[in-house]
């Protein structure tokens, strides 16, 4: 029986990158499994309780930063980047100046990216197996304790910026990441240098000052955490700072000078659905739970549920214009069966009534 031929891993790495391009990824990089520097950063972040209620960030022991503990036998990691920007970023900046219009983070305007990326990564793994035979691997897209940005940084896909997002010199930061942990000894790519320089635009623009120092984000103040991850009541002192942001926040990306190189995505699944790119707060506030479930089917937004959806919009309405329609809609939610919805609607009403009284006094 002839001996099994050992693959040329250098050539295989080149093929993997070519296949990735054919599958719609904008870039593929390969890293080793040494995440010791990222592990120290993570442990420091956790020790300061900056993860808030995201208890899963502290779970799983060291599996997040030691890949072989998560997937036994992991020797190298294939990191993939896929652009998702659905429209010109200037549109996002315009929306933030329109208090009656809802702002939804650009990544959530279309279909949920998890399945799309996961399917493409599986196809990439299938191509590898077809080339060299069965091998050990596991693909991830936010589906397990994985330090995806630290891995992508090591794989040469970009550098982690002062806002903690990955930045690519030729593509900005509007992209998703996915990984394939493998037992193959693939050659690692070289990391790229950090090119943030003296720029502090992301720190300065953050509406809640969640970027407490360069490369340090306190999730407990972050709009994305407050509107997506936080299940309870949004702290009152932070509510006015949310503006019309009802799901996530893109301010640090909208202001980043490297995003002038970002390109619009060609993926149809990332295009806006159900007018989420330009809907009024009142329109979305009027969605019943069944409407919410139907219109967020296949969307990342569905995970927050209808109650948190209403909670977020109530805060945005309270930050907006004291119109009769807004006040009427909020009063109706005072009868909602969820205490959290009622509490945030009451806060919004009190805030709008205060604004209206102040305006009347000035006119008088």
From TrEMBL:
Pathway: tRNA modification; tRNA-queuosine biosynthesis. TRNA binds at residue 307. The active site is at 142 (proton donor). [4Fe-4S] cluster 2 binds at residues 206, 222, 249, 252. Cob(II)alamin binds at residues 64, 142, 166, 177, 224, 249-250. This is Epoxyqueuosine reductase. It catalyses: epoxyqueuosine(34) in tRNA + AH2 = queuosine(34) in tRNA + A + H2O. Catalyzes the conversion of epoxyqueuosine (oQ) to queuosine (Q), which is a hypermodified base found in the wobble positions of tRNA(Asp), tRNA(Asn), tRNA(His) and tRNA(Tyr). Its main location: cytoplasm. Monomer. One of its GO terms (molecular function) is epoxyqueuosine reductase activity. Belongs to the QueG family. It is an enzyme of class 1 (oxidoreductase). Binds 2 [4Fe-4S] clusters per monomer. Its cofactor is cob(II)alamin; [4Fe-4S] cluster. The gene is queG. Keywords: 4Fe-4S, Cobalamin, Cobalt, Cytoplasm, Iron, Iron-sulfur, Metal-binding, Oxidoreductase, Queuosine biosynthesis, tRNA processing. Residues 187-216 form the 4Fe-4S ferredoxin-type domain. Its EC number is 1.17.99.6. [4Fe-4S] cluster 1 binds at residues 196, 199, 202, 256. The keyword DNA-binding does not apply. It is found in: Cytoplasm. It comes from Methylomonas subterranea. PROSITE patterns: 4FE4S_FER_1, 4FE4S_FER_2.
